[in-house]
Amino acid sequence: MDELSDAQLKQFTSRLMPGQIATALFQALPDVIFWIKDSDGRFVYVNKAFCHDVAVMEASEIIGLKDENIFPKELAAVFQRGDEEVLRSRTPMWDKSELVSNRLGQVEWRSTSKIPLCDLGGEWVGTAGISRKMGGVGPSLVPSRHHKLAVIVEAIYEHLDKRIGVTELADAAAVSVSTLERLFKEHMNTTPRQFILQVKISAACDRLINSGLQVKEIAASLGYEEHANFTRAFTKVMGMSPRSYQRYYS
């Protein structure tokens, strides 16, 4: 087998037109959102999936805008803080799991990565990022071969109106808490506690838009005895308060 030396690799890549591979390939991935921003947070490039996600026809409608011109202000602030941290620290952020609402107010579980960008002179000039869908937050995520885990997840969905503890789930499955946590991490890449929160917040998003219930009633329907606790949990996950979410997407 003929191997390429470092010098040969460098020579080959130096002959390529800058940017042609990344932009072309990311345009061909319908489930991967890709963007580039300058140091002021203005979009300088987005792919087709990004345009579809924010319900615009052409990328030209987004170029030059900032997050605050496209997303709810609370959510935009979360995105901007992430960009600023990556640019300030000059350290990439890899595979951050986020529960994100789409243009219809439906929630999707996504994995987001961001990197800082520097120019030929070594100056840090912006950020680039991708966000890919990891699927929904329903029972279908559970591997069918793992019966115990499937039963546990089904129980979570059936008892959304109650406070669900990790210990109770472990007891119901006749496993230790550590085993339960290992199963969730291995098969669902999350913790039992985080998964319960995901499911409740996903249900909350749907009810905020479609049920006609007040925020206080939705909180109670999801097992939150204190309205304030529900608001804090929702805001931490979604980047905006339940009331703001309801106003924006209704």
Automatic annotation (TrEMBL):
Pfam families: HTH_18 (PF12833), PAS_4 (PF08448). SMART domains: HTH_ARAC (SM00342). Coiled coil: none annotated. The keyword Nucleotidyltransferase does not apply. One of its GO terms (molecular function) is DNA-binding transcription factor activity. Residues 150-248 form the HTH araC/xylS-type domain. InterPro entries: AraC_XylS_family_regulators, Homeodomain-like_sf, HTH_AraC, HTH_AraC-typ_CS, PAS, PAS-like_dom_sf, PAS_4, Tscrpt_reg_AraC-type_HTH. It comes from the Bacteria. Keywords: DNA-binding, Transcription, Transcription regulation. This is AraC family transcriptional regulator. It comes from Oceaniferula marina. The lineage of its organism: Bacteria, Pseudomonadati, Verrucomicrobiota, Verrucomicrobiia, Verrucomicrobiales.
